[in-house]
Amino acid sequence: MQRKFLISGGGTGGHIFPAIAIAQQLEKEYPGCDILFVGAANRMEMEKVPQEGYNIIGLDVLGLKRSYSPGNLIVLWKFIKAYFKSKKIIKEFNPDCVIGTGGYASLAVLYAASGMGKKSIIWEGNGYAGLTNKLLAKRVNIICTGFPDMEKVFPKEKVRFTGNPVRENLTKLQNKIESCKFFGLDAEKPILFVTGGSLGAKSINQAIQEGIETLAENGVQIIWQTGKNFRANTQDKPGMLAMPFLREMEFAYGAADLVISRAGALSMSEIAVCGKPAILVPSPNVTDDHQTQNALQFCKMGASLLVRDAEVAEQLVNTAIATLKNQAQIGSMQNKLSELARPNATTAIVSAIKTLIAS
């Protein structure tokens, strides 16, 4: 019997790439299965998901404004329309299980699915639960979490601590020499991988741009994913590579000696699985400051360093240079990261799905 799975998640790479990782693992467990994605129209999943070979349907949805705003009436109206469209999609596709990885669209889809009696599962990657998953917690069958001790937020009997799914290519990194060849970099010199996520990070980008001469003077090479909204000027310096988006992340992590990153759940899981020491810069523009909570869990163990967004301009570049020169600190962070890594997270999530649809 051909199994069918409906997956909803998007808005940012932190929701999209775990969804794709789950889809890829489902195809391994259920060869020939039919997978359909549902996302938010005009968001990045409408581009990224088809690039991976999957079909996707877009819903016209918006995020809830946290302060009182007449605009929330429009949000509610769009949600109601998306809810009924989701019911129609679910009825026509008839999935064996509906999976949510967060984002605007997943609330409508999972709310509809659970109301129709469909088996459903959600994934919460952060140490602080998002509003969508809080609203869905009582309706879905299973809740997979990226951090431990989430029973304090969700119904205990539904929680499965699986870790966060990462793209399969990151569980089998290219070695440093081959990765450096891919980028045309010198494997004998330190390499800094800078990423603000798929949409970029203004404060990180500005600090790296302003510190480009200092980094070059200290012999540091850079692989720099800027995001689409920032145009970097590397002044034709050798070993300074900048690009809006980087698909070949396995080579970037494989080449890197140190990573500068936001502290989203996906980014931190990738850092842990890849075993790459990192300087984490939590975004100040996320709900309930959950990225700082994520980062503190790593920093308390000595697995990463933290530079707050307000201090980036003064501290980031100098901290990166000092860390790259401290091999003892690099080695210590690598050891701690191995304790935090969950390379089999995607398999664990799919195992939960298998158990659910077999029940």
Task: Describe this entry's structure for a reader.
With 359 residues, the chain is of the alpha/beta class. The chain folds into 2 domains: 4-166 and 343-358, 3-Layer(aba) Sandwich (Rossmann fold); 169-340, Rossmann fold (3-Layer(aba) Sandwich), CATH 3.40.50. 44% of the residues lie in helices and 16% in strands. Strands 3-2-1-4-5-6-7 form a 7-stranded parallel beta sheet, with helices on both faces. Strands 10-9-8-11-12-13 form a 6-stranded parallel beta sheet, with helices on both faces. Strand 5 (120-124), helix 5 (131-136) and strand 6 (142-145) form a beta-alpha-beta unit. Helix 3 (71-93) packs across helix 4 and helix 7 (202-210) packs across helix 12 (312-324). The radius of gyration is 21 Å and the shape is globular.
- Report the CATH C-level class of the largest domain: Alpha Beta
Uncertain regions: pLDDT < 50 for 5+ in a row?
Answer: none
Order of helices and strands: EHEHEHEHEHEEHEHHEEHEHEHEHHH
| CATH fold-type name of the largest domain | Rossmann fold
> What portion of residues is helical?
40-55%
CATH superfamily of the largest domain: Glycogen Phosphorylase B
Task: Please tell me the overall pLDDT.
Answer: 91
User: What shape does the CA trace take?
Assistant: globular
Strand order of the largest sheet: 3-2-1-4-5-6-7
Proportion of residues in extended strands: 15-25%
